[in-house]
Each structure stands twice: as C-alpha cells, then as structure tokens.
Amino acid sequence: MRAILATVMLLLWPLLPTFAQQSPRLSPGNHIARVNGVAFAYFVSGSGLVLIEQSPGWGIGSQYLQHGLMPLEKDFTLVSYDTRASGSSSRPIDESRMTTSNMVDDLEALRRFWDLPKINVLGHSHGGAIAIGYAIRYPNRVSKLILVDSSIQGFPGDDIVEREMKKREGDARFAAAVAEARSTAEPKTDAEMKESLTRSMPLYFSDPEKNMAAFAQGLSQTPSAWVNAKMVYLDSSFNEEHQMHRIHADTLILVGRDDWIAGPPFSEKIHAEISQSRLKILEKTGHFPWAEDAAPEFFVAVENFMR
Question: pTM of the predicted model, to two decimals?
C-alpha cells in the first residue's frame, strides 16, 4: 500500500504547486508584486487549479477580464494582473521598456514570485501575444495555453484588419466606429483615450446593440494614454510569427467569427504553427466571446480543456 501511495504522490507532485494553496501570495484579494523594477497590481479569486489571466499591454488594465471571466471562479483560482504602467501597476524607470518582450519577462518574474513551477495561461487579444511569447521563450514553464482572439507579435495583419473594416463601414451600427478606428489622432489624455475607445467599441462586437452595454459595465479602469503612446508593438527583435512552432504546450485557440481586429485568420495562423493546438471558431461573436451569445460555448470549451 505504501508503495502505491508513494507512486501516486510522485505522479501528482508536479501538479501540486499549480494550486493556489501552495503559495500564500495567491490568497484571494488584491496584492502587489514588486518585480523587474515595477510594482504589479494583481487580483486573486476563486479556488482550484491556478489559471493566469493575461491582459493586453496597451493600457486597458485587467479588470475587464476579472469581470468577464468571473464564471470560471467556481472551478479555478483566477489570477489577473495589470501589465506595466496599466491600471494600478507602476511605470518602469526606463520608459523605453514598454515592449511585448518586456511583458513576456514580467510574466516569468511573476511566476517566480508566485512560486509556481509551471503555469496555465489564458491570454486575450494582445495578452495572447504576450502569452505566445512566453510559451516561446519559456516553453518548459507552461502547462496549458489558452489563446482568445489573440494577436501575434510581428504578424503583418493590417490588410486583414482593413478588409474587415470595409465590410462594416456601410452598416449604420459600425460606421462611426470605423471612422474612429481609422483616425490618426493620438489621445493626449486618459479621458480622450476613454472617449476614443467608447466610440470604436461597436466594432468589437458581432451585435453591439445587444451585447455592448453589458460588457461596458466591466470597464471600470480608465485606459492609459501614456501606455498607448509608449507601447512598442513592432519590436523587430522579437517576432513570434516564425517561432510559434517551438511551443509544445497543449493549446486551445478560441476566436469570434466576427472579430475585426484579431479574427480567424490570426487564429488559423497560430493553429497551423502550434502542433499541440486545437481551434474553435465561435459564430456570431466578436472580440470578446464571453460577452456575446456564444458565452456558454466559450466557458464550456475552457472548462473542458482545463480538465
């Protein structure tokens, strides 16, 4: 009997640290982690297997994920954090260190801070690009990877985005949002940034008249115009497009059929490059699948994949 128990413990041991109770730094509530010269604000909720919610790095913060992915709390310990200079996290001393590559290394520093040998990561939008970069650079530190309407660092998708905007510019529901998305005026203040995001918001939904108002309730953080101006997307030293084959973590790719900015062509590219991946396209859904009619399908897919 002791031999059997010992064998079982040896098999389970690598999994144990992925549960929140293994680290006092992952107790429920709001916390601060000081790593890489930045004070990162992070929030822990739920119970069970730890799932890191990776938010984008352009200044929106993480509360929209905390609010939108709340149904997962019943099965998982959810850990979300504001990327450098976004939300309640501080700015780096070196203002040039605002690249996707820097944010990849932030996630690794946080993994060590949380004392997790391996992590499960759900990345949304540009947060997906951060998650992809992490799985490329630290392949042995990822257990499972979930990419939701993910962008790809270095992937030339401007023609895809322009094609999607053209499809919508004749639709009264999207015309003003298309004009805002095409504007070259850079927001100078956080208030201007918020107004610009509000004007372009209909583009991110398959059915904005039905689903946008409920989603907006989760946007409690003011987006940062400073981060939007400083964020370096096209970091030529870190191109993910031709490195995704190095990812060997079990990967789930979820994308809305009607996502204009990081839609199926992006996810199909990711799926083609990552051998251990599966792709699910959610119909009548835009950039935020948990906020539209496909929400039940989205949550079931995540839960089944994690199990």
Answer: 0.92
